[in-house]
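User: Sorry, what's this?
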Amino acid sequence: MSHDLTIDEKRVYADRTGATEVLVAAEQGLVVASLSADLVGEFGLDHRATVRDVAATGDRRVVATDEDVLVGSYDPTDFGPAVAVGFDGEGAPVAAAPDGRVARLDGDWTRLGAVDDPRAVDAGMIAAADGVHQVVDDGLRSVGLADARDVHGRGMPFAATAAGLYRLGNGWMAERDGAATAVSADGDRAVAVDDDGLLVREGVASWTGVETPATERVVDVGFTEAATVAVTAAGTLLTDAGDGWRTRALGVTGVSRLAVQA
């Protein structure tokens, strides 16, 4: 099912009770879409700026823009331009700058170190061109791999790299060969993105390609409690709660990431 609606640029103040919000980072700004199972309800451009990344935990979110890192009601933090944001293991915001600087927000920004070409931050893990790094106390520790494009640090950690998908156990264990660009997990569910589209994890080191109605490149993927969600670079949101994929054009372009906020 496909829908094409003109995006409403006012702030969205929908009743959030029982709803899940999907946050989409795009060149026009941050889109917030209300999702019930696989049905997209109200959506709109919640903040206008070029957004590079977004992360959410509980009722909190952190947004990376070309100008600054934003928290709360899009409050500036004086970090400067950022390309990746997330949270550490204790829930403090972590951001990475275009030059590789990584810092944590504890009232003020505390520099943790630097990485080469940061791409993603999740649960205190940073994916970068020089591998995966982990926030340790007030610094960073390299934990291996190379050319990491994405990392999932919560629960069972996964990494998407130019060489394939990896799972962290007793060291990094290869799960699937072939370049991957995004990965996400939730309990027993895991899904990834490669050059051909979506991959679903069926078991240990067993990933199966999934057909979707997307005609553009899928750039990120995640989970709500009821559905798998994905987004394309051209701004199409895809949702599947088990009865097939639904699509919704969000009216934005240059999409880079999504985050799920229950």
Notes: The CA atoms of residues 2 and 247 lie 5 Å apart. Residues 1-17 have pLDDT under 50 and may be disordered.
